[in-house]
């Protein structure tokens, strides 16, 4: 008989084993460091243009993984803020946000990130 699994929510990371697995994954791969380094491109004066596609990719990763029990907790709030800032930069790139559909999707992603951060 399998041992009992204590879940504290419905998400895949809402249990001790999965939470530990994510922590180990993040530590071994340095994934958060890679994402953070890319998100920091938004702080450059000329962040749009060539970097817009990289910022959007990094924001997507932050959207998926910057969560309690997945992301290193000591960086969660600051990395969420950085992802929000990067999303604003992406939205400011008129060449990237060429369609209403693209812009609406990015705005929805921004709202999700803003809801997740602590106020």
Keywords:
119 residues; 5 helices; globular
Description:
The chain has helices at 16-29, 31-39, 52-65, 73-92, 100-116. It is mainly α and 119 residues long. The chain has one domain.
Give the helices and strands, then pairings.
Elements: H1 16-29, H2 31-39, H3 52-65, H4 73-92, H5 100-116
Helix pairs in contact: 2-3, 3-4, 4-5
User: Which percent bin holds the helix content?
Assistant: 55-70%
Can you tell me the residue ranges where pLDDT is under 50 for at least 5 consecutive residues? none
Beta-strand percentage range: under 5%
In whole angstroms, the N-to-C terminal distance is 44 Å
How does the overall form come out from the CA principal axes?
Answer: globular
What integer is the average pLDDT? 92
Largest sheet: none
Q: N-to-C SSE series?
A: HHHHH
Structural class call reads mainly alpha
The radius of gyration is: 16 Å
Put simply, the count of helices is 5
Count of discrete structural domains: 1
Number of E-state strands: 0
